[in-house]
Amino acid sequence: MKSAANVSRAEIVELHRRHVWPPYTSADEHASIDPLVIVHAEGSYLEDKNGKRYIDGNGSWWTNVLGHGHPRLIRALREQSETLLHCASSMIANPQAALLAAEIVAVAPKGISRAHFSDDGSTAVEVAIKTAFQYWQQNGRERRVRFIALSGAFHGDTLGAVSLGGVAAFRNVFAPLVFDVLHAPVDDVDGFEKAVHAIEKILETKSDEIAAVIVEPLIQGAAGMRMWPAALLRRIREATSKADTFLIADEVFTGYGRTGTMWACDQAQVSPDLLCTAKSFSGGVLPMAATLSTERVYEGFKGDRSRALMHGHTFSGNALGASVAREVLAIYEDEKILDQIALKHKRIAQAFAKLQDLPGVVRTRSLGMVGACDVGSGGYAGKSGWRVYEHGLSMGAFLRPLGDTVYITPRFNIEDSVLDRLLEIVAESIRLSVR
Ligand SMILES: Cc1ncc(COP(=O)(O)O)c(C=O)c1O
Q1: By C-alpha distance, which of 268, 248, 273 is closest to 148?
Q2: Residue from 228, 252, 291 to probe ligand 1 pocket by mutation (most atoms less than 8 Å from CB)
Q3: What average pLDDT does range 221-241 have in this prediction?
């Protein structure tokens, strides 16, 4: 077997083009783009095969919250690998998964008492959908088969998650396959109020049909970092409680401090019935996710095998992933990660507010460790953000955009000086490429 370290850059690109089928990439792009070849990552930086370093401005798809190669996470991996890598998880307990369940429940919103482990954000959402659905099927409310989501939502790429999603680019081609979901319309930046009103109305009249309402609390990530107020989230909780149906908080992106508090739900003092976490859950180290739920939800499954939650993934409760996820929580505690976020947020907020003065910048916004602005009106299909991306790369920052939305989601303990440099590169890249 060839050593990966000894393969040339040209050979890697050649093999990548010939055999890898990368996500969200057209065949034309795949054949023509000279990809970044990342061989090393440390702290806030990605390093390519030529030795050039880039500040990881998008936290490696919103996963890397503690920096690349955190020594404690590496140690956790190494130590766990010496005893147990993986075993099945039905009728078998493993210590890391059991401890992780107790530890995540301890920091979860009030009322959460159970963790069902899976692999990634999409699977965490699938589990939430199926849990809510099955709960009502076996507890005398069989007509509760529909879900309410927000238009512009993104909950993942598996078919249940796509059904809930509202971003055309991820959904349209699969429209004939997805199940029917009521999408509350968010028609512009301030349209969340209208959407919440629509949800309240549906719940007043059709609550006997609704299995759950699902939201990305406070920020719709993939829709273009659309931010919405905690007060509206509280209204959704009140409406779902009144209708006695479930609220699913998809905190795959917003959780673990992204919005400034451990969970975005915390800012609205809201406790959901089900909460999905992934990405930061393992510090971006391994595929590891959880669907958390309350005891009330779990009680709906009490009884014999005919009432068991009929969902499972091969790597559920993976011992390596669980040991790393536990260490992430310990680092949060020891390094006071949430406290650091408040300070970093100020820098992000100030820098993004200033971008408003640049020609072509439509709207700036920030919350917690997210700063975003629009540099065109094309949404996810827009091309302006990609021009900013190219300039960012040449200046040493990885700023993968969401079409015309330019944003940063760096690690939460990024050094102040590196954060300031990242913010300078954002401003300079926009200045050079947007008119
Ligand atoms: C809110 C939200 N939910 C679910 C997902 C899907 O996560 P994954 O890509 O890990 O399946 C994402 C991914 O970006 C997300 O932002």
Answers
A1: 248
A2: 252
A3: 97
